[in-house]
Design goal:
This protein is an alpha/beta fold. It has 13 helices and 12 strands. The protein has a 7-stranded mixed sheet with strand order 5-6-4-1-7-8-9, with helices on both faces. Strands 10-12-11 form a 3-stranded antiparallel sheet, with no helix packed on it. Strands 2-3 form a two-stranded antiparallel sheet. α6 links the parallel β7 and β8. The longest helix is centred in the first third of the chain and has 22 residues. The radius of gyration is 22 Å and the shape is globular. The N terminus is likely disordered.
Length: about 425
């Protein structure tokens, strides 16, 4: 009985979406969703959500525009790359893309999950295993760990792939690396890919050193700056256009754009994109504070202030007076300095950044007693170059460091403009 009502409700929803689309060509619709289940609480499916309510926002993510992509998916065997951000959301109302598509009789065959898993609760770098979604019985295939790229066998039985994941606009945030490998697998299998675009909360600027090819890794695959300033749909077009897929492959790509959006549009994410980015402040500070992941310092994992504070027991409290003690929590089962009192700085009241801030990193380096132990090998992977570490060690100021990026940033900005969908 519940299932019948659920399907009927979404049939009405679809009718409303097509009606809205016929009234305004710019109101083409897409659908998107979020996780089918959570470990701490179950996603609530609200039968009263209507497309009209979703369209009352100032802008609509691609997933909120069903009549732009449902006709493409109809009568196809579909694979979906999704996680907990793959949601249609409005205050107090939420619906996962997979639930929506199943209710509309789209043949969803497999779900592919990136780092942090389908539910988005796994630690950074934690092995995420394959499984079966308990609600639908659909196989869930992990795209993190040894299997970062869908295999030929995993792509069998799929006629079309959908990608709907919220990015945060930083090169070392691995969802764009997952996008690359999904595009490559689709190109190899001659399977079209539909990207449901979403706003970039750090899309209002570009900054940082451009990655050098010899330092390419899963936390940085492409020659782009740390803050790339593109939505994930724009980024997909750039991967294709710049020939970054192996063997000169090109993915058959369709991007369902965000409506009424500009790169200057402030965007507060309705669902946290990963366990350690809990709010807008953390997301804005993340490109600047993630460099601490390549040092002995903590960036707040194991607290409720992830990527809003930094510190270590070894920092002098006279200059780093804020104190916190990391403890195991969701997304940090064994945080750095677990149970130890850390001295650092609290950045939660910082104004919104429109450029990287390396002053905190430089201050921490100056204040850290064991200079030769400050940088780990992972720092170079995050920076995408060995130059940044050398500059800090040699006493460069942040303005001096940033001046060395400007020529590369100008060249990158000219390149990315070819692929931008929004002003």
């Amino acid at each position: 009985m519940r299932l019948t009502f659920f399907k009927n409700t979404f049939f009405l929803w679809l009718l409303v979406s097509f009606s809205c689309g016929s009234q305004n060509n710019q109101e083409k619709a897409n659908a998107s969703g979020d996780t089918l289940e959570k470990t701490q609480q179950e996603i609530v499916i609200h039968d009263t959500v209507t497309i009209a309510e979703m369209m009352s926002k100032d802008f609509m993510p691609g997933a909120h525009r069903p009549n732009a992509y449902l006709p493409i998916l109809k009568d196809k065997s579909v694979g979906i790359v999704a996680n907990q951000t793959s949601m249609l959301t409005k205050p107090s109302k939420s619906l996962h893309l997979v639930d929506f598509l199943i209710a509309e009789n789209i043949q969803v065959k497999k779900v592919f999950a990136p780092e942090h898993g389908f539910r988005g609760t796994a630690d950074a770098g934690e092995l995420v295993k394959d499984g079966i979604d308990r609600r639908t019985g659909i196989p869930i295939i992990s795209l993190y760990g040894a299997n970062k790229k869908p295999s030929k066998q995993q792509m069998q039985g799929i006629e079309l792939m959908v990608f709907d994941i919220q990015d945060v606009g930083a090169r070392f945030y691995t969802y764009i690396s997952t996008l690359h490998y999904v595009m490559e697998a689709c190109a190899e299998a001659n399977i079209p890919l539909v990207v449901l675009d979403r706003p970039n909360p750090n899309g209002h600027y570009i900054d940082g050193p451009v990655l050098e090819k010899e330092h390419s890794s899963f936390v940085g695959m492409h020659p782009v700056p740390v803050v790339h300033g593109m939505t994930i749909g724009e980024y997909a077009q750039m991967i294709n256009g710049e020939g970054w897929l192996s063997n000169d492959l090109t993915c058959r790509l369709t991007v369902i754009p965000v409506s009424n959006y500009t790169h200057g549009t402030p965007y507060s994410l309705p669902v946290k994109p990963s366990p350690n980015l809990p709010n807008d402040t953390a997301i804005n500070l993340y490109p600047s504070l993630c460099f601490f992941e390549g040092t002995p310092l903590s960036a707040g994992r194991g607290t409720s202030m992830q990527f809003q504070v930094f510190g270590a027991p070894a920092l002098p409290s006279a200059y780093f007076p804020f104190q916190f003690t990391p403890q195991p929590n969701e997304g940090a089962k064994h945080p750095k300095f677990e149970g130890q009192l850390c001295n650092g700085l609290d950045l939660r009241e910082q104004p919104r950044l429109d450029m990287l801030n390396l002053e905190w990193l430089i201050e921490a380096y100056v204040g850290y007693g064991k200079k030769k132990e400050f940088f780990t090998d992972f720092f170079t992977k995050l920076a995408g170059t060995e130059t940044l570490q050398r500059q800090i060690e040699q006493g460069y100021t942040y303005p001096e460091i940033r001046a060395t990026w400007l020529r590369d940033l100008e060249a990158y900005d000219a390149m990315r403009k070819k692929y931008m969908l929004y002003p």
